[in-house]
Amino acid sequence: MTASEPNRADLGKDPSHVSGMFDQVAAGYDRTNTVMTFGNDALWRAAATRAVAPKRGERILDLAAGTASSSASLAASGAQVVAADFSPGMLAEGRRRHGHLHNLTFVEADATALPFGDDEFDAVTMSYGLRNVQQPKQAIAELYRVTKPGGRLVINEFSTPPGKLFRGLYRFYNAQVLPRVARLAGTNGDAYDYLNESIRDWPDQQTLASWIREAGWSEVAYRNLTFGIVALHRARKPL
């Protein structure tokens, strides 16, 4: 595949294919997301930052950080933030935009085999990335491993709107409208075909909450954002 050809990931979620796809959309990723979500992406990011509740002096892992918009939001608190992602293209775009922040570092990382020691972070967070991992339960276990006892987990992920009517409209939008708008925006529309497929295939809120409990996390809870388009999951590592 040449650099000009679109990289099309599928539900097999081969890491090289998914990473390559994100490499190709990195430059326009945030702009396209804002258009696709009618600006809700900023509201969801703010909700996740509040849920993490970063504090100066804490060490926080932002996994699947993408272009590091979420990482920069966390770093504004004064916390030491590690922006980790498996896409070199996304990390390069993140460095270009936010590399001036002295308390933000960038690490290329596989979510299922994190390059960090046990009990390193006061809080760990992952937004819209767990869905792209071949072994999401292993990623949740890795997040548990690198979190300090008493530390916090926040996962923001696309989910299943509980209302039947809205759920139908949402699925129609994802399948029929979203990829077309992405192509008009000059983005790899195939990537947004994959986005729709991965959302449709992803388990509901209760199932993800059960996976988090199975990994050993306590105080597991979630709340829906924007009628359940996304769900904000929270938990704590037992002392």
TrEMBL record:
Binding site for S-adenosyl-L-methionine: T67, D85, D110, A111, S127
Top-rank taxon, per record: Bacteria
Catalytic activity: a 2-demethylmenaquinol + S-adenosyl-L-methionine = a menaquinol + S-adenosyl-L-homocysteine + H(+)
Biological process per Gene Ontology, one example term: methylation
Keyword Glycoprotein attached: no
Gene3D superfamilies noted in UniProt: Vaccinia Virus protein VP39
Coiled coil residues, start to end: none
Keywords: Menaquinone biosynthesis, Methyltransferase, S-adenosyl-L-methionine, Transferase, Ubiquinone
UniProt pathway annotation: Quinol/quinone metabolism; menaquinone biosynthesis; menaquinol from 1,4-dihydroxy-2-naphthoate: step 2/2
Entry GO MF terms: demethylmenaquinone methyltransferase activity
CDD domains given in the database record: AdoMet_MTases (cd02440)
Family named by the database record: Belongs to the class I-like SAM-binding methyltransferase superfamily. MenG/UbiE family.
Listed name of the protein: Demethylmenaquinone methyltransferase
Native organism: Microbacterium esteraromaticum
